[in-house]
Amino acid sequence: MSAISEPALQVPAAPKSNGYWTTVGRRLLRDKLSVLCGSILLAILLAALFAPWLGVADPYQGSMIRRLRPVGTPNYILGTDELGRDMLARLIYGGRLSLLTGILPVFLAFIVGTTLGLIAGYAGGKLNTIIMRTVDVFFAFPSVLLAIAISGALGAGILNSIVSLTIVFIPQITRVAESVTTGVRNRDFVEAARASGADTLTIMRVHMLGNVLGPIFVYATGLISVSMILASGLSFLGLGTKPPEPEWGLMLNTLRTAIYANPVVAALPGVMIFAVSICFNLLSDGLRSAMDIRN
Amino acid sequence: MTEVTALAPLEDLGGEAQPLLTVRGLTKHFPVRGDLFSPRKTVHAVDDVSFEVAKGETVGIVGESGCGKSTTARLLMHLMDYDSGDIIYDGMKVGRELSLRDLRRAMQMVFQDSYASLNPRLTIEESIAFGPRVHGMAAAEAQLLARDLLGKVGLRPETFANRYPHEISGGQRQRVNIARALALSPRLVILDEAVSALDKSVEAQVLNLLVDLKREFGLTYIFISHDLNVVRYISDRVLVMYLGQVVELGPIDGVWGNPVHPYTRALLAAMPTSDPDNRTQIAPITGDPPNPIDPPQACRFHTRCPFVDTVCSMVAPKLADIGTDGHQAACHMAVAGSGHSRAPGPNAGT
Amino acid sequence: MLAYIARRIVYVIPIVIGVALVCFLLVHLAPGDPLVAILPADASQELAAQLRTAYGFDRPLPVQFGIWVWKALNGDLGTSIASGRPVLAEVMSAVGNTIMLALAAAAIGFFLGVSLGLIAGYYRNTWIDKVATSIAVMGVSVPHYWLGIVLVIIFSVQLNWLPAVGAGPGGSSSWAWDWTHMQYLILPALTSAAIPMGIITRTVRALTGDILSQDFVEALRAKGLNERGVFRHVIKNAAPTAMAVMGLQLGYMLGGSILIETVFSWPGTGLLLNSAIFQRDLPLLQGTILVLALFFVFLNLIVDIAQATIDPRIKRS
């Protein structure tokens, strides 16, 4: 090979291929809608996290003389609520609990469900039957009903609402994780790994996880949209957090008395839930198509 | 140049005369799950299969799809449990004298689907290095070994090491799979339809590579294929399987030149040939093979055999010697006094 | 076919048992003594012990479960603590309203979803498709209780066209099929229809796209079939799947109506559930959830069987 002197004929040295997730990330960044949704979500999240430094009013400080000011009032850009508290501040602070109770259950269910699904899918046999038949039972409840049933039995509270939503999502994620795992497990490269003498844990770590996590992750991001609606719904029913905490679902409930006096302000908390839910939905769709690399 | 160290292959124990692999009465039945409304059934995937593989030879296994070739391969690799039978590697019974872990260094396998047998999330180099790492080799060493092997299978390491499986062609992927198998310094390599999915020209290149590697590393091959031409090209001996059983085996020239079992004859007759003098007069078999869930009684081929006789559906034929070179066939027509009308008479001798 | 149906029914039995177990355990999931809800605050020790025995709470859990199931099989789901009436009677008087709401919503959601889906699939990747799919995404992402409030604000508060809450004038719950009563159904039904509309639009859009890209449609066109004929063909092929999806959605609406019924004070099982939760009426909570879950299970069963009857390819799996 060194005999060839023309530089044009020389093979370029070790082209560095991009890893899977790098490629997916790059494809996702090329999708304008996903970038938009991601930016909106990031903005809401950062605003909620850094609310005290944003210079907005105290979300708990009410005043009987300035109740239900309309949107556009000076100093109260988004108006005030039924107790005269600044809506902008409450919507920003409300993101803290709303996002927490919406996202955390999916995250917890992702960990538990993926573990259960991996075990069921990889072990097969009796263990699979036990896990998957139990999952089937939970599928016999519509998710809203199950969430409300568990929350209702446990009683109101943030922790109870997170627990009940986690229980709702575990079976759904387990089912997806199991079917993805079964699919990957039957691929020849897993057989080849077994044939090279690797033990189950090594195969799980090196060969299964990387191929299984992606699809489950996409599914879970889609669930966040549902989880946001359900979590705020529980609060709306009075099963989540208690007043005077700012939380979008609860705000929507307490502002129902104001739909005659100030309908726009009364609808605002729902706009936030809607925005977050639709952004997660679209982002999940974008991620799904970004991961479909063979196209 | 950095020194490349490979894993030490398993020591040769019995010498030239001892077969590298002895398989005795290997049987695998799959239960087909029944429930209240359909009774439990079993698929007779592999039924009482016995053969030997001598050191340094290539044994071909042929048969239609569903005849148990691939199941046999997976049983040999212990990727699934067998119901009964013995697998003896170089005089050591697997699971007793030879651990499963050691067996998986001594014996490796190349799968048919080159894409499905590589982890899409790992680079080619990582895939090849995985086996040696499992067997305790340091990461840097394993990486060097992987690159060295890439060169040995004809892929420039600088170009290919960091690529992902979907970025290279089918032929290149199969070379990677071969390198991955060789990374554990096996003595026996099972090639399960390893070239079947490749284009003809690529297939020829990979076959030649396999022949070269065999010489270089002193390998023994079990070559599973439905392509009789390819088997003929690469094998020293051949095993013909039908519905989970061995119906004929022997040296490739003996079996191909003088096929005894009607199934072997039909297979060879169905083979496209360009030589008009070589055309066989027997009608090739028709129809699909019977369902292995419910294989025919006695001789499993009797439902499709053009020479079927009463004895064929009564008594199962055993493998019987045809010549002195180890050629055997399981057909009543080959055994004197079997009761088949076409069997050689008692006076005919052998 | 019969074997498939029998198999499917047998498969439902363990699920029904599991559902019963989950409902039974709900009461024991509740913090504290299940007796607390029944007991007056100033009850004496003897009364507590007496009631504990009367309700069987002193027996081991499996025995309690057995007794509970046996009673349930005989139509006895216990007594509502708040109203003192049998739970089953309470649930049954409410379930009719819920079913009516769900059916109305299903009809709207199905009609809108199929129309939007067909249009979107037919004009794939045009602006028409984009509008239709955007509506679908909004349908599945919208918090429906909020949508209900928005509709009330627009149609009741601002325009004063339709009543905001209830199922009849003056808060009466006796239904009649006249315009006065129908008005009460419109807003809750439209609200409930949002999610199924979105899901069916997506399903039908995908089906239409698939069918139109298949060779046989090209062949039909080549044979001179006009676009209306092609359309009819698409509808015929997409209908079974769309109906199966609708069947499942109907189940979700039956079980998940609590938020909408709360918003509109619609006197169905959801509102019943709501009051059961806030009055800590555990027998009522338990009974309502059991009935709704069983409805859902049997609806799924019927959808599966119906689908297998229409589409014979399914029964092999």
- Sheet of most strands of chain B: 8 strands, mixed
Number of helices of chain B: 10
CATH hierarchy: architecture of chain A: Orthogonal Bundle
Helix content of chain B: 25-40%
- From the spread of the alpha carbons, the general shape of chain A counts as elongated
Averaged pLDDT of chain B, please?
Answer: 86
- Uncertain runs of chain B with pLDDT below 50, 5 residues or more? none
Separate helix tally of chain A: 10
**What CATH first level of chain A would be assigned?**
Mainly Alpha
Per CATH, what is the topology of chain A?
A: MetI-like fold
Report the top-level CATH class of the largest domain in chain B. Alpha Beta
Strand order of the largest sheet of chain B: 6-7-8-3-9-10-12-11
> What gap, in angstroms, lies between the N and C termini of chain A?
36 Å
Oligomerization: heterotrimer
Relative helix content of chain A: 55-70%
Looking at this structure, what is the CATH superfamily of the largest domain in chain B? P-loop containing nucleotide triphosphate hydrolases
Q: What does this entry show, briefly?
A:
The complex is a heterotrimer of chains A (295), B (350) and C (317). Chain A has 295 residues and is an all-alpha fold. Chain A has helices at residues 20-30, 32-49, 87-123, 125-139, 143-154, 158-185, 188-195, 200-237, 248-254, 263-291.
Structure keywords:
heterotrimer, A: 295 residues, mainly alpha, disordered N terminus, C: mainly alpha
Describe the structure.
- The complex is a heterotrimer of chains A (295), B (350) and C (317).
- Chain A has ten helices and no strands.
- Chain A has 295 residues and is mainly α.
- In chain A, helix 3 (87-123) runs parallel beside helix 6, helix 4 crosses helix 6 and helix 6 runs antiparallel to helix 8.
- By secondary structure, chain B is of the alpha/beta class.
- Chain B has ten helices and twelve strands.
- Chain B has helices spanning 69-76, 100-106, 124-134, 139-152, 157-160, 170-182, 200-217, 228-234, 252-257, 262-269; strands at residues 21-32, 41-53, 58-62, 84-89, 92-93, 107-110, 188-192, 220-224, 237-242, 245-251, 320-321, 328-329.
- In chain B, the strands form two sheets. An eight-stranded mixed beta sheet of chain B has the order 6-7-8-3-9-10-12-11, with helices on both faces.
- In chain B, a hairpin with a 6-residue loop joins strand 11 (320-321) and strand 12 (328-329).
- The longest helix of chain B has 18 residues, at 200-217.
- The termini of chain B are far apart.
- The model of chain B has no long low-confidence stretch (mean pLDDT 86).
- Chain C has 317 residues and is mainly alpha-helical.
- Chain C is globular, with a radius of gyration of 24 Å.
- The two termini of chain C are 12 Å apart.
- Chains in contact: A-B, A-C, B-C.
- Chains A and C meet through helix 4, helix 5, helix 8 and helix 10 of A and helix 1, helix 5, helix 6, helix 9 and helix 10 of C.
